[in-house]
Write a structure and sequence with these properties.
With 455 residues, the chain is an alpha/beta fold. It has 12 helices and 17 strands. The strands form 2 sheets. Strands 1, 2, 3, 4, 5, 14, 15, 16 and 17 form a 9-stranded mixed sheet that branches. α4 packs across α7. The two termini are 27 Å apart. 53% of the residues are buried.
């Protein structure tokens, strides 16, 4: 066995000093003290917090977005995730129009299987709704997919309201969750053209073309449709605005159930002033072109308050990386052609722990980035907890480590980071996936034990 001794264990019952034993891919024992026997490996983790491995439930790895391939493959993305303390990602497989869900799932397995440092599961995104997809929902459940995604934006992906209702009605008896990208695509398309025609062509045009009303309207519409479907399970992804938050509050005040809310570090730390960054070539603001866009400081403050109040269930990244040079720069002179997406899979735990220091304790961090994602997305009690019989995915966190985020030292396969120069307090010291050490102090060991998580 491998025994992690003298750590502060972050368990469902609270934080306490103790030991954890890992054996044969599982947590074999959790106790105040575990005596080692011959052959055991004892690792002293004094001064560290011992978490169940963090879960990032929103990533786009090795993915064609309709404009370009993402910079990170499953190999590089899960390696970077593990270096930061994330031991499981849930990636969005996508059944494009004309592609069946079983074929899409097989393709995502082909991309991921055998390449991953961290574990991986899949949501299934639907770009069209028809009888074949309706029949295949049950097949997806049998193959370990219990969450799906639809869009209210992007012409090549979005469903209309009636189709969204039918998807929710079909998923409800399966106990599945629908994740929805909530932006009013019709309005976005028209506003993009208006902004461009007005002479605003650089990255600063991106947030102007996707105002908070576009998100809030779509969130409100989704929640009314979910109510019509009998309070079907919905996950509002990447919440970015105060107006959107208010729409969620309104639905909950009406008594609606089964609403889950996700936000991302970028909407808790950055605001739309970033689009004015010029950098060496006048185009640095393109780093922040993602959808939804970065918002006003008042939105950042509202989401931070909501997080502290327990109104937000999970923090994910929406990691969808594109290089500034060779990819995002293709939109120079027309912000509409900048590939939408930002990088964050490696740095989420440190960003959250640092920026909420003194406000969120280890139990809160565990709830937002491990326990709740496991519960919402069908991995509990196998993952998301330090308990006997759970998977041996563990992050040993050094809360006193000091380091600085830099593109020069990151493992994400992208030429920049939105958090360049961010000074972190706390770091993943030791990261285990299935009981195997995959990263130490931010550096990978080279092990690739990541396995598919059937849910």
């Amino acid at each position: 066995m491998k025994i992690l001794t003298n750590g502060t264990l972050v368990t469902p019952e609270g934080a306490r000093l103790g030991d954890v034993a890992l054996d044969d891919g599982k947590i074999a024992r959790v106790a105040d003290h575990i005596d080692a026997v011959e052959g055991d490996e004892v690792v002293d983790v004094s001064g560290c917090w011992v978490f169940p491995g963090f879960i990032d439930a929103h990533t786009h790895l090795q993915c064609w977005t309709g404009m370009d391939w993402t910079a990170d493959s499953f190999e590089t993305g899960t390696r970077a995730a593990a270096c930061g303390g994330t031991t499981t990602v849930v990636d969005y497989a996508t059944a494009d129009r004309g592609v069946t869900m079983p074929d899409a799932l097989a393709e995502w397995h082909r991309r991921a299987d055998g390449t991953c440092t961290a574990n991986y599961a899949f949501h299934m995104a639907l770009a069209e709704w028809n009888e074949e997809n309706r029949r295949d929902l049950a097949a997806m459940r049998e193959q370990g997919v219990c969450s799906f995604k639809t869009y209210f934006a992007y012409d090549h992906l979005r469903l209309d309201d009636a189709e969204t209702l039918e998807v929710l009605e079909a998923l409800k008896p399966l106990g599945a969750t629908l994740c929805v990208h909530c932006e009013n695509g019709t309005l976005v398309n028209r506003l993009q053209q208006r902004v461009f025609d007005s002479g605003v062509t650089g990255p600063e045009g991106h947030p102007l073309s996707r105002p908070d009303v576009c998100e809030a309207e779509a969130i409100s519409r989704l929640l009314y449709i979910a109510r019509l479907a009998g309070d079907a399970r919905v996950n509002v992804v990447h919440l970015s605005t105060k107006l959107g938050l208010e729409a969620i509050r309104d639905a909950k005040a009406r008594g609606q159930q089964n609403i889950f809310v996700e936000t991302c570090p970028q909407y808790l730390l950055l605001d739309d002033s970033r689009y004015k960054e010029e950098g060496d070539d006048g185009f640095a603001g393109a780093k922040y072109v993602m959808s939804p866009p970065l918002r006003k400081p008042a939105d950042v403050a509202a989401l931070r308050d909501a997080l502290l109040a327990g109104e937000i269930d999970t923090i994910a990244t929406d990691h969808c990386s594109f290089n500034l040079h060779g990819q995002k720069e293709r939109g120079r002179g027309d912000f509409r052609k900048i590939p939408n997406g930002g990088a964050g899979i490696e740095h989420r735990p440190a960003l959250v722990a640092t920026s909420f220091a003194g406000q969120l304790g280890p139990e809160d961090l565990c709830r937002l980035m491990s326990e709740n994602p496991a519960r919402v997305f069908g991995m509990w009690p196998r993952k998301g907890r330090l308990a006997e019989g759970a998977d041996a995915d563990v992050c040993v966190w050094d809360p006193e480590a000091r380091w600085t985020i830099s593109a020069a030292t990151q493992h994400q396969a992208v030429d920049h980071t939105p958090y360049e120069g961010f000074q972190c307090r706390g770091r993943a010291h030791l990261v285990y996936v299935g009981g195997e050490l995959v990263a130490k102090d931010g550096e990978p060991t080279g092990a690739k034990p990541g396995a598919f998580v059937s849910r």
